């Protein structure tokens, strides 16, 4: 007898994998499955939702639920605070604020943040250290409008990275990863040679009404971003 | 009046952000909240589960639910079949099988796959093309044991990447991203210069009983892996 939604999911998954339900086929409705499995409709719904989130089913309000033609594989990435990331490697964390000033945003960043070119935002440059050695180089533009009370800390004790996670809730954002050749300045900050490959993370977050921050983070050779599938 | 779990989630989120419930604090139990909000306990459970999955709450079976001290930000990555990734960019997809032979796995790969060094596995090298130009270079080790009937296609029509997604279900896996300097051979395959930065994706998948495949995928400059937060 099936009792929980996990049992329903396991059976649905078995049918998909055994091709009892072929790729692209519409599967029976929730009520039909609830009767067949002897469970509540909400239990079937929970199982199908889980499989849809995993990319194995495609659900459309009117057309019913289909087996995905090509299951989209999904991975969940945890994006830790850099201090925690360093400490999880068993190394001591430190950071150095290299720059902190109000500055007119350059055009490329203004476009990315959806503000007028030349708007004055807080420019921050931070070097994150692991065991005293450079671990990541961070360049950040922060919109002071989103800081409660307008009082921006100096970020000497707590990095902007950690302070923002603790203090500013975002509603939406995006993140992109790429490989680039380090510029001379970036290489110098990380103790590399110009042209060395760096792992680049660019992240943009918005509150309901305003852009919060755009950050460009560089990790040197040897850095791996890893997660389970 | 609250009617759905989304309403409950919105109110819980509001309390966390307003610090009515401070970081690290234990929040009221599900039954208490169900009474306060006038909803079923299952509705509260659904909302709290969602916030826990988003990293904002920490749930422990006996100790209750706490507000996370440092919310873990999570991103979901879709891992598309390369053909779909290229077509989504509006370019035509093609691929070329550069190598396909049984070969003894080198030690580093054997360790990664959990097989004895020297085990004979299928070695595959594939160049993925976008608009006729190199898009990604793929080196893959495939365990023939996991292929139903033991009949391995030649992968000329459908790439191993796509064929595996369609035909072999994995139970667990991991994926890692890094930036590396292209070797001479890798650079030649992608039309780059040796030492140019490449975006490296390494993925390992397992079935219940056996390793399925280890793949190392290289994308050249300009490639960005992007997702919403």
How does this structure look, described?
The structure is a homodimer of 229-residue chains. A six-stranded antiparallel beta sheet of chain A has the order 4-5-6-9-8-7. Chain A has a two-stranded antiparallel ribbon with strand order 1-2. With 229 residues, the first copy, chain A, is of the alpha+beta class. The longest helix of chain A has 13 residues, at 5-17. The first copy, chain A, contains seven helices and ten strands. Chain A is elongated and about 65 Å long. In chain A, helix 1 packs across helix 3. Chain A folds into two domains: 5-67, Orthogonal Bundle (Arc Repressor Mutant, subunit A); 82-219, Chorismate lyase-like (Chorismate lyase, 3-Layer(aba) Sandwich), CATH 3.40.1410. Chain A has helices at 5-17, 30-37, 41-53, 82-88, 107-113, 160-167, 184-190; strands at 57-60, 64-67, 73-79, 93-104, 120-130, 133-142, 172-181, 197-206, 211-219, 225-228. The interface between A and B is large, with 50 and 50 residues.
